[in-house]
Amino acid sequence: MERSSDFSGTIDKALELLFHLHEQPAPRGVSELGRALALPKSTAHRLLASLSRRGLVERDALGRYRPGIALVALGLGVLEREPLVEAARPVLERTAEALGETIFLSAARAGRLYVVDKQEGSGFLRAAPRVGSEIPAHATAIGKLYLAFAPGDLLPVRSEIARFTPATLVEPRALSREIERVRASGIAEMRDEWIPGLSGVAAPIRLGERLFGAIALAAPSPHFSGASEIAFREGVLAAAAEIETRLSGGRRMPARKRAGGDT
Q1: I want to staple 56 with a disulfide (CB 3.0 to 4.6 A). Which of 14, 19, 51, 146 is the partner?
Q2: Confidence (pLDDT) at 1
């Protein structure tokens, strides 16, 4: 039993190293990684050596570590087996090209929300999450959809939620009112609530009564005005409906609400 426990602990530490490296903007040295994860330097070095042999981490010219190319192969393998990604990818590509902005596909996995695919638009997006990144539920348009239509798919919201910007909804009553608005309209919006200067609009992707995922458009906040904002809303609604049809084998899904709540 002790050997099994030791093995499990080693796996946990190796995974912590991988996730920590994934979150870092630049390579990190052994000592720095050990301090960040409260690991002895010898333990960090041994784990990194094992991960390096599998190509899961790589060393740069200064001997610092970064995520390895093998992680890309593993990630692509997961995406190739993800029916939501397979059904949505051509729709994401066409929508991004038509609207000129970045389109995201997200879904709940193990109680958290992740970007599972995205397609860059022709416009310049200053900041955006990568595929595989976790996104906060209370501060994103996609997250609000899950809080409105599938809160059981997410881990319980903590009593104190993070305030990312002055616009983040952290007061429970204000957040509840926003979730009710999303539930009534069938579409969610975000204005500078997660990243300053970034806004978005999202529509749910449903299979029957189940929220299967969500699609969102993100762009610099000044782009959300007038005719462009209307086009963004209609674009994500149309894209979500097309993805639903593809997932259902070509069967047309019930008509969904438009951005203003009318059918």
Answers
A1: 51
A2: 40
Give per-residue pLDDT as tens, 207-221.
888 898 999 999 999
Instruction: Identify the pLDDT of residue 157.
Output: 67
Average pLDDT over residues 111-121: 88
Residue type, 259: A
CATH 3.60.10.10 fits 82-247, yes or no: no
48's CB contacts (< 8 A; 6+ apart) are 17, 30, 33, 57, 65
- HSE at residue 58, side-chain half, CA atoms within 13 A, is 10
Decide if pLDDT at 237 tops 80: yes
Fold of 2-73: Arc Repressor Mutant, subunit A (1.10.10)
Is residue 107 within 8 A of residue 114, CB to CB? The reply is: yes
Determine contact, residues 186/158, Cβ cutoff 8 Å.
no
The residue extents of the domains of the chain are: 2-73, 82-247
- Count of beta carbons in the 10 Å neighbourhood of residue 138: 22
Q: What is the pLDDT of residue 122?
A: 76
Q: In this structure, are residues 185 and 135 in contact, taking their beta carbons and an 8 Å threshold? A: no
Report how far residue 90's alpha carbon sits from residue 247's, in angstroms, rounded to the nearest whole number: 13
Same fold, 2-73 and 82-247: no
Instruction: Give 38's contacts (C-beta < 8 A, 6+ positions apart).
Output: none
Cα–Cα dist 202/216, whole Å: 4
* Per-residue model confidence (pLDDT) at position 69: 62
β-pair partners for 216 = 104, 202
Residues in the chain: 263
